[in-house]
Amino acid sequence: MSISRLFPCFGILAVALLLAASVRAQTDDVFAFIPPGGKTLLADIMRSGLPADEAQALLAGKRDRESWLIYLRDRSATIPGIKGLGEYELATLADYLSSNMPLPAGAQPADPGKADWGRLLPRDGRDLVMENCQFCHIITVVVTQDKTEDAWLGTLNKPSHVEIELTQEQRRALARYLVLNAAIPIDLVPEDLRAGGATY
After folding, report:
1. According to DSSP H, which parts of 30-166 are helical?
2. Distance in angstroms (rounded) separating the CA atoms of residues 188 and 24
3. What dihedral angle (degrees, nearest 10) is formed by the CA atoms of 183, 86, 26, 196?
4. Deepest of 1, 71, 114, 199, by most Cβ within 10 A of its Cβ?
5. Are 60 and 108 in contact (CB under 8 A)?
6. pTM of the predicted protein model
7. Which class would CATH give 125-193?
8. Are 37 and 92 in contact (CB under 8 A)?
9. What is the tens place of the pLDDT at every residue in 47-69?
10. Band (196; pLDDT cuts 50, 70, 90)
């Protein structure tokens, strides 16, 4: 086959690749309405040029949720990565830190700005929601509900949900994330995700 005949094939291939990339980007963005979890928030802070002593304080600290929340609020005026966070994000991050820190010493990177945080940090409540709540129903069924932590745990312990392979700590993390970040108004949900699904 001559080169001149190959050019149309290359053109078609290029268009197909561009379309595939566009579809993939749209798929990734369709869930952008669901607030970030603690892992994402912490990774963003670590990549923001955080001073080494502050990075160490976050990664090696051991505090309860309320103490982390106070700590984060105290630093929200001075640390760029924390500065832009709202109250729900601060609470989500405080909850994540209280459950997952300190990181083991061997898991703490020498250069936080260049670390692969997706691999280093434990999954957060949003990760668990996205990985486990879409097998039987549309994600909207979950993220638009307004429940207490006990109510979410009750749902997660129903016969329809006990088969989900989660530890009790992961179930609590998922429930706490939803308490802070669910009850999303339906008008903020993309139209394609508004219909259908179970109602439990």
Report:
1. 38-46, 52-60, 65-75, 80-83, 87-100, 117-120, 125-132, 140-143, 149-156
2. 21
3. 0
4. 71
5. yes
6. 0.81
7. mainly alpha
8. yes
9. 888 888 899 999 999 999 999 99
10. low
Residue 15: per-residue pLDDT: 39
| CB under 8 A, 24+ apart: contacts of 167-176 | 169/99, 170/123, 170/128, 172/99, 173/95, 173/96, 173/99, 173/124, 173/125, 173/128, 174/125, 174/128, 174/129, 174/132, 175/125, 175/149, 176/95, 176/125, 176/149
For residues 136 and 55, what is the distance between their CA atoms, to the nearest angstrom?
39
| Token pair for 69 | 């929340």
Q: How much is the pLDDT for 28?
A: 57
Alpha carbon 13 to its chain's center:
34
Nearest to 81 by CA among 113, 115, 107: 113
Phi first, then psi, for residue 80 (nearest 5°) are: -50, -45
Domain ranges of the chain: 38-104, 125-193
Distance CA 89, CA 101 (A): 17
* 173 closest CA partner among 88, 104, 96: 96
d(CA 93, CA 85): 10
Mean pLDDT, the chain, whole residue set: 84
